[in-house]
Amino acid sequence: MIWVEEAKYIDNFSLFVKFNDGKEAVIDMENYIKSKQENTIFAPLRELDNFKTVTLNRDIDTIVWANGADIAPERLYEMMENCQHC
């Protein structure tokens, strides 16, 4: 089972994420966020001020935003593994 141990906003749509297995990366989330349809919880995150509200929720071991959006740690891990520049 994988979970997020540390996360923080870096710049633009990039986040630093560290997982419980010790792997870590700066993940560019711009394409992920901007690919979501307008009527989803992710739509407000297209505005950088909203995206910057990201925090680590230790109750669910993943990142969350002020509007209630979150991403499963497994999805973040997959994004890290598929990242060409991480």
How would you sum up this structure, described in words?
The model has no long low-confidence stretch (mean pLDDT 93). The chain has one domain: NE0471-like N-terminal domain (NE0471 N-terminal domain-like, 2-Layer Sandwich), CATH 3.30.2020. The two termini are 22 Å apart. It contains three helices and five strands; from the N terminus they run E-E-E-H-H-E-E-H. It has helices at 30-34, 48-51, 73-82, and strands at residues 4-11, 14-19, 24-28, 55-57, 62-64. It is an alpha+beta fold and 86 residues long. The protein is globular and about 35 Å long. Helix content is 22%, strand content 29%. The strands form two sheets. A three-stranded antiparallel beta sheet has the order 1-2-3. A two-stranded antiparallel ribbon has the order 4-5.
List keywords for this structure.
about 90 residues; two-stranded antiparallel sheet; globular; alpha+beta; three-stranded antiparallel sheet; NE0471 N-terminal domain-like; 3 helices
Summarize, please:
This protein has 86 residues and is α+β, with helices and mostly antiparallel strands. The protein has a single domain, classed as NE0471-like N-terminal domain (NE0471 N-terminal domain-like).
Distance, first to last CA: 22 Å
Using only C-alpha atoms, the radius of gyration works out to 12 Å
The figure for the number of domains is 1
Write the CATH architecture name: 2-Layer Sandwich
Pattern of helices and strands? EEEHHEEH
